[in-house]
Amino acid sequence: MEWIELISTLLMLVALEAVLGIDNLLYIAIESGRVEVSERQRVQQFGIIGAVVMRLVLLLVLVQLIALFQSSIFSIQWEPVISGEFNGHSLIAMLGGAFIVYTAIKEVWHMLAGDLNHASKEGKRKNARSAILAIVLMNVVFSFDSVLTAIALTDSMLVMITSIVISGVVMLALANRVAAFLQKNRAYEVLGLFILLLVGVMLLSEGGHLAHLTLFGGEVHALNKTTFYFSVTVLILVDLVQSRYQRRLAQKP
Length: 253
Known about the structure:
The protein is of the alpha+beta class. The protein is built from eight helices and four strands; from the N terminus they run H-H-E-E-H-H-H-H-H-E-E-H. The chain has one domain (2-251). The protein has a four-stranded antiparallel β-sheet. Strand 1 (72-78) and strand 2 form a beta hairpin. Helix 1 (2-32) packs parallel to helix 6 (157-184) and helix 2 packs antiparallel against helix 6.
């Protein structure tokens, strides 16, 4: 009976990792697209392997020091403009979210400016090591909640480690395909960037919620995961319908 419970928990964690790994794959695809073509697969592989190792380290650290990440580090009381009490979890979520929002807005800005070769130019300047480091660090931000959820769902370290390793194998299998798809279909890169922007906003709101942050008297609430996935689904459907409609218009005499 205990084995059945462990297996069901493992399947639940793997499913959770798969759902949460979508935004991770998008970031990996965009980041690896900035390096030389010959380096992309190596960046993806080393980045994901390094991310899995860092996730395992994060798991071990959180198991031992979870109280430290939940304890208050500092607070801000500047009523009525801003107030909040920040811990390690909230700071990681907010800093990661801010970086993702900055990355997405920067790329969209270059597209609006008409710099179509920006991605390839930046790819030539982007060092493979820095791309790998960015993938590893952002994976830690993306996986923070899933690791905490795993700790809450089970006490079995074997189950938690197995779910992390399986998610890493899945990312290794899919990362190159996602990156290749975005390279061949540049129009979908815009969709990916706006989904990434939503991910950043979600992390910012989650960090603000954890810190009990208030801005101008209004409390910051975490963006509901269901709302997030619904918004992403609508974005994808709108993009697909618009693309098909444009193709049909182009076929008219």
